[in-house]
Input
Amino acid sequence: QVQLVESGGGLVQPGGSLRLSCAASGSIFSIPAMGWYRQAPGKQRELVATITAGGGTNYADSVKGRFTIGRDNAKNTVYLQMNSLKPEDTAVYYCFADVARDYFSMPTDYWGQGTQVTVSS
Output
């Protein structure tokens, strides 16, 4: 089995910063991709950012220039540095990891439990 544990959410004022972390553990052979989604109240879950094992990144237009995704392959950990936060960034943030459990297996998505980010004065 694979577990993802998130940390780093909280309450921050507009213009502030937060850093989210998500560590994957368990039966892991490789993680081709990791990333973050978010879901605001009454809205669908949306992609925030993704990163490949080789460091290729992709961002939602709404966070480009403000958020930076990174990962530590040795620790199976993905990070999300969020700067210049806006009230519309308020949401539950979920990390995911596309995990291959052995050489012959197709990758499967695993999800964290979610961490609340609230941007408010």
Observations:
- The longest strand covers residues 30-39.
- The CA atoms of residues 89 and 119 lie 7 Å apart.
